[in-house]
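no rush on this but wanted to send it before i forget. what follows is a protein written twice so to speak, once as letters and once as structure tokens for the fold. mainly i need to know what kind of three dimensional shape the backbone takes. thanks a lot i owe you, the record is right below.
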Amino acid sequence: MKKSIRTIQLILAIIFSPTLLAAGGVIEINQVCATQLGCFSGDTSGYPVTITGTAGSSYRLTSDLVLANSNISGISITAPDISIDLNGFSIISQACVGATSNCAPATGNGRGIRVQSVLYNGVSVKNGKVIGMGQTGISLIGSYSRIENVTAQWNRLTGMFVGQNSWVNKSGAFENGGDGIRFGDGANIKDNTAISNGGNGLKGFSSAVIEGNIANDNVADGIFAQGAASVITGNTASSNGNDGIACAFDCLVTNNIVSSNVSWGLNIFFRIAYRDNIIYGNGLAVNGGVNMGGNLCGGAVCP
């Protein structure tokens, strides 16, 4: 009898515990806990789900998080070294549920996932979507952050942002109102797709490695390395409203395909070398830089 009572007590404790653990000790986040009791220690009912780190460092969605309006944020992070697996689910505004065309809000300040301070380094987000936020889809402003296999779509401003020395890999930014992907100094931006964003496809600062990305049909530049000393290699930048690839100074620009951009194919300024690029159909071919050979402009050797 005592064993039966103890079993019932354990079951009730699990059911009514504010912290739900998935396999391996990963903490679950879902629509029910977010809107009712809070999902774990340090979080209260209602959005945003607040991760303080007291409950653990690893979190996983087990349902979509549906936000009622564009002023609501999905997840707020106030600790370093937090890992969030979206697990194939979405953080999505109610207005975008079931949408098949651009549902970006006209106003709002909500974010899908937001790190609250540059002091909170090492945050990672993977495997899901952030759709229809009132401001930025994902904002990881601390250093050494990572976004992988995430889609940011139909957000009013920037699709996703990472701070210094961070990574964005195998992710997509589509039809966001501002830049698709923005990044700080020393970032590694690899194998991403940025299409039809209202600003630049990819925009960042100094000492970045920008490799293997597709940046097409964006309103401004396909790829804009705003600072110095970036390596821009193996990308495709086509049909953008301004330049295909732009870099301010001290960059290396190699093995890119740059086509049908409204202004310059390569707009590269001071102390920049370019090599083995294919450049055609742009308003103008190349501005600045030092031709190190192997570049084709409209099917002929670049001057």
Notes: Confidence is low (pLDDT under 50) at residues 1-17. Residues 182-303 form one domain. The radius of gyration is 22 Å. The chain has two domains: 18-177, 182-303.
